[in-house]
Amino acid sequence: MPKYKNIIDPHVHLRGKEYSQYPFLQLGFRDAIAVGIAAVGEQPNPNPSLTNVDAVKARLEESKPYRGKIFHWIHIGMTNDLQQNEASLKAVMSGIYGLRSDKTFNTHSTGNMGITDHEKRKAIMFLKGEINYTGVSIFHPEDETLFTGDYDPQDPKSHSIKQNERSETSSIEETVRNAIDGRFKGILYFAHVSSPDSICYINSMRNKVPFEMVIEETWHHMLLNADQDYPLHGNRVKMNPPLRNKSSQERVLEHVLRGDVDVIGSDHAGHPVSLKDLLETGKIPPSGIPALPFWPKGIELLRDYGISKGLLDNLIFNNSNRIFNLDLEPKEVEILYNPDLWTAYGWNPFSRIDGSH
Ligand SMILES: [Zn+2]
Questions:
Q1: Distance from C-alpha of 278 to C-alpha of 280, rounded to nearest angstrom
Q2: How remote is the CA of residue 1 from the centroid of ligand 1, in Å?
Q3: Segments of the chain scoring below 70 in pLDDT
Q4: Which CATH code of 3.20.20.140, 1.10.10.10, 1.20.120.1200, 1.20.1250.20 fits the domain covering 3-345?
Q5: What local confidence, expressed as pLDDT, does residue 278 receive?
Q6: What is the 8-class DSSP label of residue 69?
Q7: Model's pTM, two decimal places?
Q8: Could you tell me how far CA 315 lies from the centroid of its own chain?
Q9: Ion ligand 1 nearby residues (CB, 5 A)
Q10: Who is most buried in 1, 6, 171, 183, counting CB within 10 A?
């Protein structure tokens, strides 16, 4: 049976009252336990959103019955209210409720938490500089002013054309600029980097900025693509940022294998599959895919591609352990990929590459 380091998954969405009929929180921890995860970092966009310490405290109470020995921490959400943000950032620095990180959505995604005014994004970064914030600042980088064309649910690929690669790289450039100008002193962390150009840009800037930068990569952006997976899954594989074309996806995978990115996060995000299927509901399908069950298969594939043990350990455990100051004990887990875990979600986004399609 394959062995690997116990995993830290810094990027999961576990849902709240928006899907009160569905046990996504419970399922998330079921899967995390099943694949050998030691810690999960939850994003702040369930309903109610996790944008103040009381909401964070309540959320941790909620996960208690399900999380077993898994360390559950929350990236507290930034809002358009600077005073509230200041309180949240100070809470992160105090370490209360296990806080160690904040999250800014540079555009709207699930939960509509986008800080869409660039002056506001700048003001939040300057606030971080002024209060000498030292936490991890996570960004969802997409600049909606650069989106091209409209999303047409009848043509799933139009989502990838609209939310184009340049809109991501440009949003990263703006964030880096704000962090330099605002004298940011924390760790600048870019979630789910989907474009090879974004990876190249961040790497070209690492030695030119006075703070650490982190590139998070997802399984789907390194292994799935718009050319092959929309034809199989349609809008079910709609996510933000979207799948890229095959050549970009292959370049992302090359960067991962070369050690150009820092951590893997699953961006696990369950939705009722009926909402994903436009023709059944007549609505705009939501963005996000379930991904936690994929961890053992993803690790196996990276090994097949020849990744070194040291690099793999860094991507799935060591780097997140240090960046988020988790201080978790590394250990080996021995786990077989279990495709039956997908059944609870009604589909398997990785069916093309795990051999089940
Ligand atoms: Zn996400």
A1: 5
A2: 30
A3: 279-282
A4: 3.20.20.140
A5: 72
A6: T
A7: 0.97
A8: 14
A9: 267
A10: 171
